[in-house]
Structure formats: structure tokens, C-alpha cells
Amino acid sequence: MRHSRRILFGDETRKLELLSTRIDRLDLPLRGTLLDECFRRVRRDLRRAGIDEMRPNFYLSDEYGTVVGTANIGVGFWDADPLLRELHRDARGGTNSRADILLLLRHECGHAFCYLYKLYRDAEFRRLFRVRGHFFRTYPSTDRYVPNPWSKHFVNPFGDHYAQKHPDDDFADTFAEFLAGGWKRRYRAKPGALKKLRYVERTVRAWGRKPAIVRSDPRDLDQPLNRMKRTVRAFLRARVGRYDPRGFLDPDLSSIFTRRGSAGRFLDRFEGEIVRQAAVWSGAPARVVGDILDKVRERAEARRLGVRDTHRTLVELTAYVSSLATHYATTGRFRN
To answer: Most buried of 46, 94, 161, 314, CB within 10 angstroms?
Structure first.
């Protein structure tokens, strides 16, 4: 990759661009990503276990969680992109490994299986998982719970004793361990947990190939990506001073383009003219000017910037690109 492109499209620049982008405007294709791999693996796990009728609907959201009464499973959007994962690690102090994501997805599939087949109404379920009162209304409003780390009645796939928070999570964690396999060996010394795992095994055998009792509406989503208007920076509460974004152009582009519209058509029309003029004025190679315009186009489209006055925008953008190219031609950088 050319030096000019390494600066303009480098990871440090891209991180600040991501932080400055509204979440609903993130372009996050899933094909070939870590999440895509995990989705496919969990679906294979379900089929291997004999669960054919429940089809989890994974969607990007602000957290991992299952919409109550559905098979709609929200997945943390930050795990859809390697740089977002790094930003999450920088801001929150950690990131999910592949094993973590698989555990989370299996856990959420446990919630979905419970909801779709209304297992919480089953007498044995209520006895084994110690349901007291209304299954949903008794769910705690916070993540504060006091576990017994020595209890032999609960599985503990995450190492945080989360199964002890509420019967809903107890079943979901138990289901996750069942789906992962090898549970008979792992829990042979925990008879209470083993009883629950055997219950899951019997229940999956009984219901896995039967149509769900509850119809899951794929439109019933909680905080999908297209409803999240905050920037990534605001969501993560990230500090931007730790990055060195030497190709970050967003503030300048905000003063050249309008906040709404399609700058892409403008650039389609005038890109050649801007490249020729800026290359002459700056003395920089045309390919360097082209790299700058590639970055301008990428950020204008990502932020949905537009053009109100064609002539003024053409003059301002040509002057701006020329100044960047001149600075690069003399210093090897686009800004001090």
C-alpha cells in the first residue's frame, strides 16, 4: 500500500472515524467475520442436538440479549468488526474471544428455547430451576446478585455464577453447557447441576423437532442498529486522545459539505477536474490527490454529507485537497 494511503486509511485514522460515526450509519457486513463464523457454529450445534424448528434470528444491537417471548437474539455490534473490537477493548477494558461469543450465543439460544416452548410453565422446570412466582415479573432489574460459589446445583460456564441470578438465566446457562457438549464429564461432581442438564437433554429430545408453541415475530427487536442514533464514541464513552489519526478529515469535511445529501454524485462529476487542478497547484502526484479524494468520498458517503452550492463546494474542495497534497508533497504528512 502506498504511503499516502497508509496514512489516510490506517487503523488509527479508521478508529477515530468509527468513533465519530453514528451507530445506525455503520457499514457492518457480516459475511466472513468472526460473528458470522460463530452464528454458523451455533446453528450447527442446535441441529446436532436435534433442535430443528427453532431458528434464532441474530441481529446487531447494543448488547447481547434475547427479546422476551421470541427467538430474536441481539448481538453486540462491536463484535462485528475487528477495529470496533479493539475500540471496545480500549474503552471497556476487554473484548469477547471466539469462545466467549459462542457461550453468549448458546446462552441466548437457551432463553429463546425456553420462551418458544413455554418451558417456564412446566412443573418439573419450575421445581428444578426453583421458580417462585411469575417467571418474568420476578426478574431482577440489575445485575446485582449474591452467588454461592460452592453450590453444586448450578452450572457455571462463564465463571461468574450467572446462573444463580434468576431461573431464566439458570436455564439459559444450563442449555449453553448442554449445547457445548461434554457436560456429563464436567459436571459429574455436581449432582444438582447434572439433574438440570439431564432435564435439558430430555426436553430437547421431546420438543426439538416440534413446531414452537409461540410464534416469534422477526420484527420484534430491541435496540437494533438502525435505531441507535448515538456515535460509537458516546456509546463506548471512549477517550479519543489515545489515538494518532493522521488522516482524519471529518471536521474539515463538515465545513465544506452540508449535513444531508449525496456528495457522491458531485464527486462522480468533478473528481477528474479536482485531481488535475490540485496536482498542478500542489506539485503532488495525481495518485496522491486521488487517494485524498478516495478518503473524502468514503467519509462523505459514510456521514451522508451533501452539496448545496455546486460552484462554491467545487472551489472549496479543490483548494482544500490542494493544501493537503501540498503539505504531503513537502513533509510526507497531511497535517502537522
So the answer is: 46
